[in-house]
Amino acid sequence: MTKQLKADLMLILVTLFWGVSYLLIDISFSEINVFTLNALRFLIAFIAAGILAFPKLKTVNRITLKYSALLGAVLLVVYIGATYGVRYTSLSNAGFLCALTVVITPVLAFIFQRKKPDKKLLIAVVMCLVGIGLLTLNEQLRPALGDILCILCAFAYAVDLLITENAVKKEEINAFQLGVFQLGFTGIYNLVLAFFVENPVLPKTPKVWVAVLFLAVFCTGAAFIIQVLAQQYTSASHVGVIFSLEPVFAGIVAFAFAGEVLTMRAYFGAILLISSIFAMELEIPKVVTSFKNFVKNKIV
User: Fold this and answer.
1) Which of 52, 60, 233, 264 could form a disulfide with 3 if both were Cys (CB 3.0 to 4.6 A apart)?
2) Alpha carbons 92 and 86: distance in angstroms, whole number
3) pLDDT in tens, 118-171
4) Would the pLDDT of 284 be above 60?
């Protein structure tokens, strides 16, 4: 198993966490507001990582902190766009538009880094775009404030992926430290905004505390640290394609815990999304050659 394949499998696990997060966020909003929830998520994740890995963090240098602060600001925009976007548009529109990161990332990589995507990646991106549309869109896609915010979320996350890809390749930057400290900065930014625009309160019931803690530990702390570590061995465009699976996992969770049933068109879209990952990962010529050899041996 190659390092890139291992990294991509780790990122699929991250996407699974984020698919679960929609249900947990909905539970959390019954008692706390947007910025308060995001502040709790990121600060708890940062504190937990700090306690568990303090020896690895105490040697952090200035350039790592600089990139961590920058990524924290970008993530703040990502979460503002995603959270408020859902409030001002339909869930189906939000799911499609936030997942446009898969298309925006290779475009930005080509514009700013002169990285020409290979044919496999282009095929995977097209399959993802069609799959996301089949899975999430209805016939009533209309421009609205929420649509603009969701596109902002997708654009900001594409920027986050490209900045992270650039940062982890620098010798002065420790990928693990970057992953942890960006959590702290994002949490601080959200906490400041929470005091300005909300009345921050802590969760009152065990149910919401469990949802917040799972969001913090798995959907935030583990997820963003894994993303940064994995991007040492894979490209930002690969990450964008893998993260397009998020609507698939969200749909599975919705079916299992909320009883939501998808249309046949949506199921076809989910299959197309999953197929795009195989199209990106598999060496097609090798697969074809292996299949020919298998058939030849069987005939002989």
Assistant:
1) 233
2) 9
3) 777 777 777 777 777 776 666 655 556 777 888 888 889 889 989 998 898 888
4) no
Tokens of 212: 């917040």
Rounded-to-integer distance, Cα 76 and Cα 81, Å: 9
| Amino acid 291: pLDDT | 47
Q: What is the dihedral of CA 140, 142, 148, 151, to 10 degrees?
A: 50
Q: End-to-end alpha-carbon separation of the chain, Å?
A: 31
